[in-house]
Amino acid sequence: MFAKRLIDQETWDDLETALITGDFGIDVTDEIVADLRAKVARYNTTDPKDLQRMLREALEERFSKLDSTLKLSERPAVVLVVGVNGVGKTTTIGKFAKFLRNYDRSVVIGAADTFRAAAVEQVATWAERAGAQIVRPQQEGQDPASVAFQTVDFAKRNGIEIVIIDTAGRLQTKGGLMDELTKIRRVVEKQAPVSEVLLVLDATTGQNGLAQAEAFIEHAGVTGLVLTKLDGSAKAGFVLAVQEKTGIPIKLIGQGEGINDLTGFTPHVFVQNLIG
Amino acid sequence: MATFGNLSDRLADTFRNLRTKGKLSPADVDGTVREIRRALLDADVALDVVKDFTGKVRERALGDEVNKALNPAQQVVQIVNEELIAILGGEARRINFAKKPPTIIMLAGLQGAGKTTLAGKLAKWLAKDNHTPLLVAADLQRPNAVQQLQVVGSQAGVAVYAPEPGNGVGNPVKVARDSIKWAVDKQYDVVIVDTAGRLGVDADMMKQAADIRKAVQPDEVLFVIDAMIGQDAVATAKAFQEGVDFTGVVLTKLDGDARGGAALSVASVTGRPIIFASTGESLDDFEPFYPDRMASRILDLGDILTLIEQAQGAFDEEEAAKVAEKFRTDTFTLEDFLGQMQQLRGAGSIKKMIGMLPGMGAMKEQLNNFDEREIVRTEAIIQSMTKAERQNPKLLNGSRRVRIARGSGMTVTDVNQLVQRFEQAAKMMKTVARGGVPQIPGMGPVPGAGFGGGRGKQLPPKKKGSKSGNPAKRAVENAAIASGEKLPAGGAAASAGASGSKGSGFGLGGSNGRPEGAPSEQELESLQKFLRR
């Protein structure tokens, strides 16, 4: 797209196509294209290289408006991990626990996904790999809020620095399940303030990502986004709209099934991957 | 998708200034196609598919097919809907069972698409149909996927073949191959192979999937895809088609609020049918896929499609022609009138129907004033007549009228008014049908389609003839009406007059409960005017 000699109509069409197929959504795409057209006119340039640079700058600026550092200064720092089914919450928790262990923080994971078959075993395997402790439900189908409570309680008694609570995946349209999240949060807060609520979003998601974010913000008070499966072919442009419309920053990026495939969010790198 | 208005509203906006045009001009169509494009992109349909699709819609919308019962916006919506269904496949395909059991079904897809859960659902569904399914744990990658399948299997009450512990231990190709022998030995008639989730760009894992496919020679390879997936659906679907050449698609997590444009992308790009839809976390939330439901979901068109169906049902062209013939030969009776009215009512609540129309917001107040029971009352009066009376209203003397009023719970005045109006209208229609111009006193502006509650005292029944000042043109247009043909929208809109004019839309009574016995074709025309708005 940017390899041509001059900016012409084809360049603009290609740009639009690239943004739409990157899941930015039609509204954001129109915005960006209009903005760049204005800039190209203002600077009176015809060089596609300039356009590419302006695009990168525009995206980087928009992505870096929010502060993406994790706030884990409380002791214990409680992190709640939420999201719809199959986005990679449990895998993210495993990787996140390892990430924290690398900095020599003590970590306990609360296996509060008591709904899905073998979810507790799955998170236990990750805990073992990461070298974190785990609090399991005492019986099958136990109320997830009570598992969360016991985990925080365990952390306080044993002086563990960081608590990560796994929750069952739930679609944002299920009112009852969303209320359950509110309850988990309320119950945890009786013991310790919740430091971070991380919403895990799948990079392959399309425009539904925004609806997911809005619902989880309302019910669980999300404080940060985690973008997973970025090692695939999906570009996850929808997070720009999510970040801008909700004011919640992206904090972590998952890029594979290995335990070390989790990094912090860097707008520069992210945009680089997005537009090359 | 709460933040984006739905397509019906947007189309209503696009067509607000189209009232007086019968046929769509290229400019109108372009505007509409743009909206459809946005709607499809909002629904996550892949861009290439959207381009193809809007091209086809544009072509058809500019073509000659004009359904007379629909207004231009609805025509476009209908074309869109038909095209959507065409891509999604006319009807749901079923699983192809092997002639010689076991039937082997392999599941493949991205991580977190819902393969393992789906394996359980499919097994349970098959078990209900007296099959003996065997679940095969060939996902040895994800931690505890094997245990998950075992739990799901016990919930579904089916057997699970899991010789390897998983978590990276064991060879999935070998497990899959061995499972077939096992199934033959133990006489399971369906084998469902659950594989690990993999990315389309992961060459090693795709090769492994292809190896599993080669090893088990499945009768069906189902590509499991999350309904929430975005533009990446195309790349992923293509990668899986090349990798494992799936034979069918399963759409999961349809219980969320994603529009599921991926369904369209995948079906269109790969040409493979969508066989099942998964709609919840319980093992029973599983059903065959219905293309038509998906089509309306993608465009968020539920209401408007229902309306189109209803309108088409109500406006039976043949019926309309028959009525016109009756006008001409002076054999239109109260009975025909009743029949017409019931046909109209068959379309459901008129108020509801109009409420469903896009752009009817401005009409709300008038709509609230319109008393639907007027139709019921008129019906009651006619139904209280004997057959002879209905066919020949001249029979109606004083005592018959008293009887009818008592029978229908109305007053004699009401009955009188109905009969009077019916006769007046029938006479007028006859004149029109014969090509003449009815002599109606006080013929002011032709009453429009508004639901005036407080209409004037003695407004004459509506004239259905042409307004044209040119006698020749008038005759032609009148003849067109007479022959039962519906006016093109332009003509209808012209005769509809301003929407603000206070006429009774259905030729039925105003606020004083006075039923107006206008012929029913007039009613049909009136309703049509609404539909053409």
UniProtKB/TrEMBL annotation, chain B:
Q: What is this protein called?
A: Signal recognition particle protein
The segment annotated Disordered runs over 436-533
Spans of biased composition, class Gly residues? 445-456, 500-512
Subunit structure as annotated in this protein's UniProt entry: Part of the signal recognition particle protein translocation system, which is composed of SRP and FtsY.
Described purpose of this protein according to its UniProt entry: Involved in targeting and insertion of nascent membrane proteins into the cytoplasmic membrane. Binds to the hydrophobic signal sequence of the ribosome-nascent chain (RNC) as it emerges from the ribosomes. The SRP-RNC complex is then targeted to the cytoplasmic membrane where it interacts with the SRP receptor FtsY.
Any idea which GO molecular function terms this record carries?
7S RNA binding; GTP binding; GTPase activity
**Main subcellular location:** cytoplasm
Reactions mediated catalytically: GTP + H2O = GDP + phosphate + H(+)
Q: Name one GO cellular component term.
A: signal recognition particle
